[in-house]
Design a protein that fits this description.
With about 190 residues, this protein is an alpha+beta fold. It has a single domain, classed as Trna Endonuclease, Chain: A, domain 1 (3-Layer(aba) Sandwich), CATH 3.40.1350. The chain contains 5 helices and 10 strands. The strands form 3 sheets. Strands 1-4-5-7-8-10 form a 6-stranded mixed β-sheet, with helices on both faces. A two-stranded antiparallel sheet has the order 2-3. Strands 6-9 form a two-stranded antiparallel ribbon. A hairpin with a 2-residue loop joins strand 4 and strand 5. The longest helix is centred in the N-terminal third of the chain and has 14 residues.
């Protein structure tokens, strides 16, 4: 940049275009929309169960929720059907580079995924290590095995690399996690 006094200053800004503001949830929602549009699968984000206790009704027929609370703990983030199989999964992001904190998943969510799998459904978690730009799918069985055998408070990245499945980013669908689920269906 040239200033009026003749001083020249150069300003270099490093721009990181990876994800361009996208979050894991946005990527999964985009993928699920693609799956529905192409009639591949019907998977939806579950709403969080809340109970509204106070509403402000206005004369212009609009209203605003003033007070609400969580009715019960929610189970997992997503559920639906694919190739005749029920699918249920939780999606989490972490900025950690070496492990995923187990505190990010509640015990009732682990139990829920275990129940889904026990009854013939497909349960898993999708974890994005945002600082590494890596997203993994970990089957419920491997998640349960880790939590039962290990006393750690986090799952090491190496465990995801060894037991999980790296989900590559695409244009459409952004995260083709059903390609990995196809592997589960072929094994059974």
């Amino acid at each position: 940049m040239n200033y009026p006094t003749g001083i020249k200053k150069e300003h270099r800004q490093i721009i990181n275009y990876s994800h361009r503001g996208m979050t894991l949830e946005d990527d999964i929602n985009h993928s699920n929309n693609y799956y529905r549009e192409k009639d591949i699968a019907y998977i939806y984000k579950k709403p969080t169960p809340i109970k509204v206790t106070k509403v402000d009704f206005r004369k212009d027929r609009t209203s605003t929720i003033k007070e609400a609370f969580y009715q019960e703990p929610s189970t997992t983030d997503y559920n639906g059907i694919y190739k005749g199989k029920y699918i249920d999964f939780e999606a989490k992001e972490t900025k950690q580079k070496t492990s995923f904190p187990l505190a990010n998943i509640h015990p009732h969510q682990l139990k829920h995924l275990e129940n889904i799998t026990r009854h013939g459904g497909i349960g898993f978690i999708i974890v994005r290590f945002s600082n590494l730009n890596e997203t993994y799918l970990l089957k419920e069985e491997d998640l349960f095995s880790f939590t039962e055998k290990q006393k750690r408070k986090s799952i090491p990245l190496k465990y995801f690399k060894d037991k999980g499945y790296l989900i590559k980013e695409n244009y459409n669908p952004r995260l083709d996690y059903l390609k990995i689920v196809d592997n589960f269906l072929e094994v059974k």
